[in-house]
Design goal:
This protein is an all-alpha fold and about 70 residues long. It is built from two helices and no strands. This is Plasmid stabilization protein.
Length: about 70
């Protein structure tokens, strides 16, 4: 997967990045920022919040108080 490829992200993460990017463009520090900078900041924010793209094994955690299976 080449650098910058967004195919590993969920639809929700892509949607969040679009909204964050739009926010940076219109409400960024001192009248907004450019398109490229807004996009970089948006994806950095999504990565910080979610830990990156689709994580393998996600949704397989045990409930609290459950012992591991044998």
């Amino acid at each position: 997967m080449p650098q910058g490829d967004k195919s590993a992200y969920t639809d929700k993460q892509k949607r969040q990045a679009r909204h964050i990017e739009d926010s940076y463009k219109t409400h960024g520090v001192r009248r907004g920022v450019g398109h490229e900078e807004a996009e970089k900041r948006a994806w950095a924010t999504v990565n910080r919040q979610s830990g990156g793209g689709k994580l393998s094994g996600s949704g397989r955690g045990r409930q609290a108080g459950q012992s591991k299976s044998k």
